């Protein structure tokens, strides 16, 4: 932050210094959130936004700035603590998606990071066709990265197209059945849970109940995702037992 301030003191229109200041404020926001200092995070968000918007005003090709602004507006419209402070601003998620679309045109990691963030933002907005276009690009470019196959299958689950979602997750489950890699095991367990959810949604309650009992008795690797899924499994088991 001191470096960016020193550079801006010499030249207030130094685009690299503005970008550095904006992204550094972003990191300070994360730090404030970790300390539950929500007001501090909100005030720093204003400074971050000002720096990054001025940077792209001076140089429209600074894709990192579009990415930072895109993430800010998406999170600002989806996270409760931000909405509390931005009550009069309202939903700016469309603005965030527009910024992320610009960031996709960048190079290297920023382009793929923007694609990934945009995909989930589009899912939330129920713009599934556009999102799947970005997913297919990533699946074609990185065929061994299972995350993009999960993102593809999840688009149908979120859209409540359960027959299609089940078919995609079952295919993924078969592909990962014998994998010993920790990350792939995580995706495998997630895929199994999604198959159960689809079966339940499709009215196959007996199958869902049996699969739920099996999954509950197994020893799982620890992850925050699997802890969340285990809680959902326990809840589902109770509902299915009542039915």
Structure description:
It contains 13 helices and no strands. With 243 residues, it is mostly helical. 80% of the residues lie in helices and 0% in strands. The model has no long low-confidence stretch (mean pLDDT 86).
Topology:
Blueprint: H1 2-10, H2 15-34, H3 38-58, H4 63-78, H5 80-85, H6 93-104, H7 109-124, H8 128-141, H9 146-158, H10 162-176, H11 182-201, H12 205-217, H13 224-242
Helix pairs in contact: 1-2, 2-3, 3-4, 4-6, 4-7, 6-7, 7-8, 8-9, 9-10, 9-11, 10-11, 11-12, 11-13, 12-13
Give the amount of beta strand, in percent: under 5%
Shape: elongated
**What is the mean pLDDT?**
86
- Point out poorly predicted stretches: none
Could you tell me the radius of gyration in angstroms? 21 Å
**Count of discrete alpha- or pi-helical segments spanning 4 or more residues:** 13
- Kindly, what is the distance between the CA atoms of the first and last residues, rounded to a whole number of angstroms? 59 Å
Instruction: Encode the helix/strand succession as letters.
Output: HHHHHHHHHHHHH
Number of strands: 0
Q: Which class best fits the helix and strand makeup?
A: mainly alpha
Major β-sheet annotation: none
Helix percentage? over 70%
């Amino acid at each position: 932050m001191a470096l960016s301030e020193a550079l801006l003191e010499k030249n207030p229109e130094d685009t690299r210094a503005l970008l550095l200041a904006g992204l550094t404020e972003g990191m300070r926001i994360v730090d404030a959130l970790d300390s539950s200092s929500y007001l501090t995070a909100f005030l720093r968000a204003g400074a971050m936004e000002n720096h990054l918007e001025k940077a792209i005003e001076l140089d429209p090709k600074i894709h990192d700035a579009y990415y930072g602004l895109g993430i800010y507006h998406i999170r600002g419209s989806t996270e409760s603590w931000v909405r509390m402070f931005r009550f009069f601003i309202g939903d700016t998620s469309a603005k965030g998606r527009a910024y992320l679309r610009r960031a996709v045109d960048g190079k290297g990691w920023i382009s793929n990071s923007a694609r990934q963030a945009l995909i989930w933002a589009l899912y939330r907005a129920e713009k599934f066709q556009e999102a799947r276009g970005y997913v297919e690009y990533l699946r074609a470019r990185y065929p061994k990265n299972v995350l993009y196959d999960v993102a593809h299958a999840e688009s149908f689950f979120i859209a409540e197209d359960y027959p299609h979602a089940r078919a995609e997750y079952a295919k993924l489950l078969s592909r990962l059945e014998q994998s010993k890699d920790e990350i792939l095991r995580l995706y495998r367990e997630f895929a199994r849970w999604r198959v159960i959810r689809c079966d339940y949604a499709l009215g196959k309650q007996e199958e869902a109940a049996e699969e739920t009992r099996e999954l509950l008795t197994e020893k799982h690797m620890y992850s925050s995702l699997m802890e969340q899924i285990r809680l959902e499994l326990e809840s589902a088991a109770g509902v299915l037992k009542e039915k």
